[in-house]
Amino acid sequence: MTATKKILIVVTNDDEFEKVGFRTGLWLGELTHFWEVAEKVGYQMDIASPSGGKVPIDPESLMISQVADAVGLKGDLSKRYEDKAFMNLLDNTLKVSDVDSAAYDAIYMTGGHGVMFDFPKSVALAELTAKFYESNKVVSAVCHGPCGLLEVKLSNGEHLIKGKNVTGFSWNEEVMAKRDHAVPFNLEEELQRREAKYSKALVPFNSHVVEDGLLITGQNPGSAHAVGKAVVKKLKE
User: Which domains are present in the chain?
Assistant: First the structure.
């Protein structure tokens, strides 16, 4: 199969929790940290979402950028947020149902709590992800991004994650983030319910990446850079 040197990134369209008034959306660092890694080695990336169009950004993810600036640790998130051309990409995302998997080498699902509301409901995303996997292409996700794996079934009728080693935002981290009362489900529990072999870092919010063949998952926002590294390495094999 000819490599395209392109990666599809999938983000959320949802901007609020259904139970409470918290704002949510894309956790921006989970996009920018991955983007920096892949771009550095020559990959082009397109951004898609279940509904297409504008993507909301979780306001708490922007606060982290401001704190970094305040202490003199201005990083890639800050640079990207100030890059008008880059941020405009989030105003005009592709619609997942319009994406052709043949145009990409890998798919990467970002997190942010918004994905808990639209990723599992997107039949188009589930079908597209299955096409990637069954075409021997890399399927990756970080933090809450594995919500997009929950309803993915392969042509044999089984869940893609059945028997696979995976990770994702843990329930302990959800409690520490004070969102346990607001989320629609326990991601850690739902991954296990589909017979995935779930693991997590001993210390919450530490980077943790799990690889199982073509499937690569990261536990939390701090894992996005490492997921990018793992995806790039896998694509070189």
Answer: 6-236 (3.40.50.880)
Residue 85 burial (CB < 10 Å; 0-12/13-18/19+)? exposed
Contact criterion met (CB below 8 Å) for 193 and 175? no
DSSP SS3 for 187: helix
Whole-angstrom CA distances from 86 to 11, 46, 59, 104, 180 are 14, 11, 18, 20, 32
The per-residue b/e assignment along 152-191, b for 16 or more CB within 10 angstroms, e otherwise, is bbeeeeebbbeebebbbbbeebbeebebeebbeeebbebb
State if pTM tops 0.90: yes
Residue with tokens 């990666």: 7
E strand or H helix at 33: helix 28-40
Compute the distance between CA of residue 153 and CA of residue 190 in angstroms, rounded to an integer.
Answer: 15
> What totals of helices (H) and strands (E) does the chain contain, helices first?
9, 9
Name 51's Cβ contacts closer than 8 Å, sequence gap at least 6: 13, 95, 118
Q: What is the pLDDT of residues 115-168, one digit of tens each?
A: 999 999 999 999 999 999 999 999 999 999 999 999 999 999 999 999 999 999
pLDDT value at residue 202: 96
The SS3 of residue 229 is helix
- Report the alpha-carbon angle 36-24-221, nearest 5: 35
pLDDT for the residue numbered 51: 98
Containing 198, the helix (H) or strand (E) segment is strand 197-198
Contact by Cβ (8 Å): 229, 33 = no
